[in-house]
Design goal:
heterodimer; A: 2 strands; B: mainly alpha; 2 domains; flat
């Protein structure tokens, strides 16, 4: 009951014209980003990060999070109509969604994706509402060794779940930690890796770093690959957006299953929308009485994954808001946004900033309703948007990046940093190094270093402190097990190759 | 295949060596009181170790087994020249912004991006550049009051 009272308090925080408009605009932009292949929510959030400097903290958080869960809605549209996922979390929707469109059932596919996302988003928010406060009270028992341990688990999980090589993901995560720690050492005042540049004494700013690593690099990769591409959009008239009774019968259980699965997977560091959507598809196929229908237009193959990826967005907020540890790159950016406003999320976040926490949850309820309203009637507009050639979009995106970056400190040095990391991000993608572990580690790096140094001070240099405290030990053991499992999987694969 | 893995991983190993040297110079401190270079030194060491393992796995071991994998080409068949052109334009923008001012810099950059990189027709590129620079000027400089340099045109 207390949670409901606090939720009402949250609604009271957002029921202003300004904030309602921000919720609407952010989910609209998020949906648009989700529809347009080539610019993901991370890149967009990094572009808009500087603009949150001039707003209140709650408004800034509403804007950034609206883009995140809005993009999950929008990604399904391109998957179903163009067979190109607008978002990584909508890849799996292509398998059955596009087939449904080819069978003249684009309407029900789009409809069930939108409605399933709404139901899942709402369920995820209910989970967030009831789970976050008790988790935050447990997190009050955390000291520096526990934080080191949880962050290690986060790094290891994220690298383990990386789509490419785990070793490379670990390498780039360590680079991210070092980049995050660059600047003046808080204890000794010594400049570290500032290259003699005064602007770097305060460290590398997150906004230019993120904008470059994700936004600029994304555009550069697309310039190289897709400039000449012409997209063929499914052009038959889209009818009957509302699913029929049979569609509901087939989809209801996958939606509920996807919602629960997605929520808990979203809590895991490295989990999130992508992993949850793939997991949901695998589960639905396994549990179906007719698994042979999957890949040929089974509505369960759309309902489950689209629900999972939306509830995962709510679950992902839990480690960020209760422990102050982001579970993926998007949350890392949100953490950056909070820190820019001088707020450090963690166990004290809920008691000290209940207006931000409950206001954010209330805004997500409102945002989910707006998304249901936007997605169904505006499908025609999204289809037209898909037909805008990328060669007309990318200059706008680049200039937007330049303006956003300059507006942080009115300093062209930040633009230079953005372009530098844009080039690095571009090369990283070419040479198969992922950006997500790097940004996560970049944001957590300073916290990780401080906690590590404090832990070693506490223990007089003994690393056993991470094994003698129960929560810390649990995290370290989980990390070691994950790494071992990675090694064992690799050895088994090698043996399999040799035997063949 | 060799090149793709070799260059990327080697790059980070070389960077890690330099970081380790600089971190040592900063001071590692002791385990009971880590110094400013502590995390950098051990981070760099870890990168070198992981990078060496990665090279061994993806270069030495696979070569011995004679595996062949088809990997997308890194550079051939791709428009990396356009990427260089776009980046060059963005870098020049940084230097000319102060002198030309926001509106003119954005206009010239847009022309480069629409025409040079995007290969639009010249009249379309110039028209879109004008609309783009006007739109951003009105929205950000006038509407949101972001204090961009005005340049020699005082505009």
């Amino acid at each position: 009951m207390e949670s409901l009272d606090l939720l009402l308090f949250g609604f009271s925080e957002i029921v202003t014209i300004e904030r309602i408009i921000i919720v609407f605009l952010s989910v609209f932009i998020g949906t648009m980003i989700g529809v347009l292949p080539g610019l993901g929510p991370v890149a967009t959030m990094s572009l808009l990060l500087p603009f949150t400097y001039n707003t209140s903290l709650l408004s800034g958080m509403i804007m950034l999070s609206g883009i995140y869960y809005g993009a999950s809605y929008g990604g399904s549209t391109t998957s179903i109509l163009v067979n190109i996922p607008g978002e990584a979390s909508s890849v799996v929707t292509c398998l059955d969604g596009y087939q449904m469109a080819r069978q003249g059932r684009a309407g029900p596919a789009l409809g069930i994706a939108a409605i399933g996302s709404f139901i899942a988003g709402t369920m995820g928010l209910i989970g967030l509402m009831f789970l976050a406060p008790p988790l935050a009270s447990i997190a009050l028992k955390f000291g520096p060794p526990e934080y080191v341990s949880v962050m290690c688990t986060g790094f290891v999980l994220l690298t383990y779940l990386a789509s490419g090589s785990t070793i490379r993901a670990l390498m780039i995560a360590i680079v991210g930690i070092m980049l995050g720690c660059a600047g003046l050492d808080l204890e000794t005042g010594l400049p570290r890796f500032t290259l003699g540049i005064t602007d770097l004494l305060g460290g590398i700013e997150i906004a230019p770093f993120a904008m470059g690593l994700f936004g600029i690099s994304e555009v550069l990769i697309n310039i190289e690959e897709v400039l000449k591409e012409k997209r063929s959009v499914f052009s038959a008239k889209i009818k009957n957006l509302l699913p029929n009774l049979q569609d509901w019968h087939d989809s209801l259980v996958p939606i509920i299953r996807g919602s629960v699965l997605g929520f808990f997977v979203g809590i895991l560091p490295g989990g999130g929308a992508v992993v949850s959507s793939f997991s949901s598809y695998a589960i639905e196929k396994k549990m179906s009485k007719h698994p042979e229908r999957f890949g040929k237009g089974a509505i369960e193959g759309v309902a489950g994954p689209e629900s999972a990826n939306n509830s995962a967005t709510a679950g992902a907020f839990i480690p960020l808001l209760t422990l102050g540890i982001p579970s993926n790159a998007v949350m890392a950016l949100l953490l950056g946004g909070l820190m820019i406003h001088g707020v450090t999320p963690g166990p004290r976040f809920l008691p000290e900033h209940p207006d931000i926490f409950w206001g954010l949850i209330a805004s997500m309820y409102v945002g989910n309703i707006f998304l249901l309203v936007i997605n169904l009637p505006l499908i025609g507009i999204w289809v037209h948007l898909l037909q805008v050639p990328y060669k007309l979009l990318f200059p706008l995106i680049l200039i937007f990046c330049l303006i956003g970056c300059y507006s942080i400190n009115n300093n062209t040095f930040d633009i230079g940093v953005m372009l530098f990391f844009g080039a690095i991000g571009y090369l990283m993608r070419k040479y198969k190094f992922e950006g997500a572990p790097m940004i996560l580690a970049f944001v957590l790096g300073p916290m990780f270093e401080t906690s590590l140094r404090q832990s070693l001070l506490l223990s007089d240099g003994s690393f056993l402190i991470f094994l003698t405290r129960p929560i810390a030990a649990a995290g370290i053991i989980v990390s070691i097990l994950i790494l071992l499992s990675s090694v064992i999987t690799f050895i088994r694969k090698r043996k399999g190759v040799i035997e063949k | 295949m060799k090149t793709q893995y070799l260059i990327g991983t080697l790059f980070w190993i070389v960077v890690a060596f330099f970081i380790a040297i600089e971190a040592y110079r900063l001071g590692l401190g002791h385990f009971h009181h880590p110094g400013p270079g502590f995390i950098f030194f051990f981070g760099a060491l870890l990168i070198i170790i992981l990078g060496t393992i990665d090279l061994a796995i993806n270069f030495t071991i696979k070569e011995k087994r004679g595996e062949i994998k088809k990997i997308k080409p890194l550079w051939s068949g791709l428009q990396w020249g356009k990427v260089l052109l776009a980046l060059s334009g963005l870098i020049i923008y940084i230097y000319v912004l102060k002198y030309l001012g926001f509106f003119l810099s954005v206009f010239l950059l847009s022309v480069l991006l629409f025409n040079g990189v995007g290969s639009s027709k010249w009249w379309m590129g110039i028209g879109l550049s004008l609309i783009t620079s006007l739109f951003f000027y009105l929205l950000f400089q006038i509407g949101l009051n972001i204090p961009f340099p005005q340049g020699f045109l005082n505009f």
